[in-house]
Amino acid sequence: MKAIIISEFLTTQGCHEFMQVQSLGIENQSIGQGGFGTVYRLQQVNNRPISTPCIVKLLNGPDAGRGLQTIQQLQQKIARQHQTFQRRTQQSVFQIAALQCFPMCSFTGTMGEKGYLTLYLGNEFKSFEDVLMESKEYAVLDWKAKLQLAYQFVEGFIKLREMGFLWADVNPDNFFVSISKLKLCFIDLDGGTVTDQKINHPSTIGKLGEWMPYEYIEAMNQGGNDIRIRVDLYSEHWGVALGVFYLLFLCHPFFFLSDLGPHTVRNYLAAYRWPEPDHSIGSQPTEVEQMRQSIADLITKFAPFQFIQQQMQQAFNKGVFTPSARPSHYLWLSAIEQALRYFQPPKIKYFLKNAPQKRGEQPSVFLSWEVRFAQRVEITEFGVVPVSGCTRIPVTKLPKDYTIEAIGYGGSAKEQLHVEVTPPSPVTPQISFKNQKQPGTSVILIQI
């Protein structure tokens, strides 16, 4: 076990186990390594075993100081947000799924070590990069499960935004997914920046490759020694749009083009509207075209995706090369919330009978109903009916049992109603005597 003697530390409010940190004991072998640090399992704090499984990320390289500064600024933001969140919702900001790996404590060691502690997620969590490499288990998840993970992804970005934190380093290595728990969590937040600190800049503009915004790629393609790239909220909007698409479909939105380079994508968008096929490249492999058509059909014809489709059309058409046109985090969250409502179990608000009828009409009763969260509603003898309505039943067809069944993406619900007509109770005749004032004649009039 390696020992780190602490010279300075900062504990995030609410992490009582790390209120006083004098030393850390970490495993000899690392469990992960990246461009900005090495990750170890934490064994001891102040020479005592820990009750909460944690990891230590030791920052390295020329940006280690900047990364530590970013983490400490984020800790202060988390403390303030935690108080606000508790007053508003009676919950903790630490209960946000995507932020479970928030920095609990940051430190500097006597030997110059710099790093921070976060929660150890466990073996059931995998990086999304690994999920993409071994996608079979994830691919069979239903749409509700994938939407829930997408919701957590966007919600995490919204909470970071509320803390004034910009995370430019979003990529499939930097968020983990548990398929069994349906949970998603961000890691490696030291690559971001607290936007209200002018002296602070992100340690990275993101991972090279298909997750990087196209304005970054074009800037780097220009070459030269003085490459200036502006990291802002619009670039984060691209990461969120891409992340939602990957979480739903496990691929890049332009996977069907000959390549993902900005020149190819520009030419495609000049001639077509995403996700139309690119006829300029000739015939596509059957499986590629089938996949493209399947995604196109889903986002245009699958009812839960009708709101998500609007954001995707905006992000992957105009928003590709016009950063300000990209949908905000809040628009994505609203669209996903709308989609998830389709997967709630159908609810039969009411199914009842009444008997409003005009004098002289054939006796009849009326069935009325209203259903929520259903895609299809059926009533015995009437077949498919609207989600709310009223229909007339002549009494000659009674008595009878009627069943309403509501079917939706989240299941089904049934309710039965027995309808019969009870004859009115007999009216007691009222007998009155009326003298017609004719001598020798008496008439009895019965008024009913």
Provide a count of the helices: 10
Structural class: alpha+beta
The main pleated sheet reads as: 6 strands, antiparallel, barrel
Overall CATH architecture of the domain at 344-448: Sandwich
Overall shape: globular
- Termini Cα gap: 103 Å
The value of Rg in angstroms is 33 Å
Q: Output the strand order for the largest sheet.
A: 1-2-4-6-8-7
Number of DSSP strand runs: 22
Which fold name fills CATH's third level, the topology of the domain at 344-448?
A: Immunoglobulin-like
Residue share in helix: 25-40%
- Percent range for β-strand residues: 25-35%
Under the CATH scheme, which class of the domain at 344-448?
Mainly Beta
Task: Give an account of the 3D structure.
- This protein has about 450 residues and is of the alpha+beta class.
- It has a domain at about 345-448: Immunoglobulin-like.
- About 30% of the residues lie in helices and about 25% in strands.
- The protein has ten helices and 22 strands.
- The chain has a six-stranded antiparallel beta barrel. Strands 17-16-19-20 form a four-stranded antiparallel beta sheet, with no helix packed on it.
- Helix 4 (about 145-160) runs antiparallel to helix 6 (about 235-250), helix 4 runs antiparallel to helix 10 (about 330-340) and helix 9 (about 305-315) packs antiparallel against helix 10 (about 330-340).
- The longest helix has 26 residues, at about 65-90.
- It starts with a strand and ends with a strand.
- The model is unreliable at about 430-448 (pLDDT under 50).
